[in-house]
Amino acid sequence: MLPLALEYLEGWTRHIPIGTSVGLKGKGLQRFNEIRKGHPVYVWPTPLDIEPRILDAGLSCISDTMDSNLQYPGGAERCMRPATMPEIEGVRMPWNEISEGDRKDVVRRWRKRWSWSTTTEELERISTVNTLPWEAPRLIGHRGVGKDPGTL
Question: Which one of 84, 108, 131, 132 has the largest count of C-beta atoms within 10 Å of its C-beta?
Fold first, then answer.
């Protein structure tokens, strides 16, 4: 996994580096996904209000907030396991309970949406009941998340 600071994707600071800028939407996101070709990237910090857009862009989040009872600002439900519980027809299902055909459809959809370079055949071969592609976006808790502040 490659690390990436949020400042390269969001806000005016993404225009500071010389060269082509990337972003979380539109041509900036398309350009970024074509460059990374599915290589997993994690973004830190990931504030709660930006987390859905990071995951929707196919990137993994490192979050300081791992409370599963939280909702996103705006009321949307937060999925703590976006890779292992993909949404199929509006319902989130555990990866191991998804049929083989649905798993293949999910992986094909992810591959196309996020410009993964791995072939469809290779992705289908490695996407079994017990494994999923390493390119899939994840929600990762930051070191120390959930610890009692007195023990840090």
Answer: 132
Quote the pTM value: 0.86
Is residue 150 situated within a structural domain? no
Q: Tell me whether residue 119 is in a domain.
A: yes
Distance CA 77, CA 82 (A): 12
In a domain, 27, yes or no: yes
3-state secondary structure of 106: helix
* Section 38-58 average pLDDT: 92
Residue 100 is assigned to a structural domain of this protein:
yes
Q: Which two tokens stand for residue 137?
A: 């976006």
**pLDDT at position 111 over 80:** yes
Q: Is the pLDDT of residue 56 over 50?
A: yes
What is the tally of structural domains in the chain?
Answer: 1
DSSP per residue, 28-66: HHHHHHHHHTT--EEEES--TTTHHHHHHTT-EEEES--
Q: Which pLDDT value is given to residue 151?
A: 42
Q: What's the CA angle centered on 54, arms 51 and 60, to 5 degrees?
A: 95
Give the domain extent around 20. 2-144
Which SS3 state, helix, strand or coil, does residue 3 take?
strand
